[in-house]
Amino acid sequence: MTRATPPPLQPIGPRSYDSEMPNASRMYDYYLGGAMNFTADRELAERAKTVLPCTPSLARLNRSWLRRVVNVCLDEGIDQFLDLGSGIPTVGNVHEIVQRSNPDGRVMYVDYDATAVTHARKLLKGNENAGILHADIRDPQTVLHAPEVRSLLDFTRPVGLLMVGILLYVGEEYDPAGLVATYRDACVPGSLLPISVITTQIVAEHDPMTHKQILDLIAVYNDASEQIHPWTVDDLRSWFTGMDLLEPGITILPEWRPDGSLESDNDSEARLLGIGGMGRVRGPVTEAPA
């Protein structure tokens, strides 16, 4: 019996403009009501909403979770952030949350989509404490050693390393556990690492109809430039090796330190689809050298 040839791995590296191929980052922007998307993105996003009507709610829940984890990092004394897979700039960007609390707070975004990078650069023009790197998060050595990153962030001090909603686009063939470990090892003890992903595990047990719909959504994304890879609670927990989970551990997104926002989305079918947690890098926290 002849073995089928496996499909080639998606190339790693920054992407140029392609308005014809639907892009997950631009589709996410569309779900959130943004305007930085093309016809192909909107058409596939509408197909996604047809099979899973609560898709926009899921996007909003993840965006709300991003805001909450950034505020927790700020409360823990973190004043510099590396946002991996940041996507299209929209309302409530990380640098806006950070610099509202601490005008000297620093944020480096990373995204491989040219649309996201171009609009972020326009938005960040004149902001000396925020920037964006056009790079692929699956190439951590390039990201971590980029001059733009090293000039803005001080890795001898704790960092907020944001992996919010990005690893759902990273398949097992790219070793997401290894990626998390590489980025974790670049951060000193006391750094905080929030990760959120999509799961089919919980909804399969409690809501069979929405479970079928999320499987249909995953199939729709086969026509996008990025595919969706759902993960289990145990997968996510394993990525926090070398870290201590902050309370309340790994939960569905609406139950992770809720603040009363997005009440209708919190009760929608989307509530069981996203999970997240935040880890603190272990070890004694030391002050940066003078």
From TrEMBL:
Keywords: Methyltransferase, Transferase. Residues 1-20 are annotated as: Disordered. The keyword Secreted does not apply. Signal peptide: none annotated. One of its GO terms (molecular function) is methyltransferase activity. The keyword S-adenosyl-L-methionine does not apply. Residues 1-11 have a biased composition (Pro residues). One of its GO terms (biological process) is methylation. The lineage of its organism: Bacteria, Bacillati, Actinomycetota, Actinomycetes, Pseudonocardiales. This is S-adenosyl methyltransferase. It holds the Pfam family Methyltransf_19.
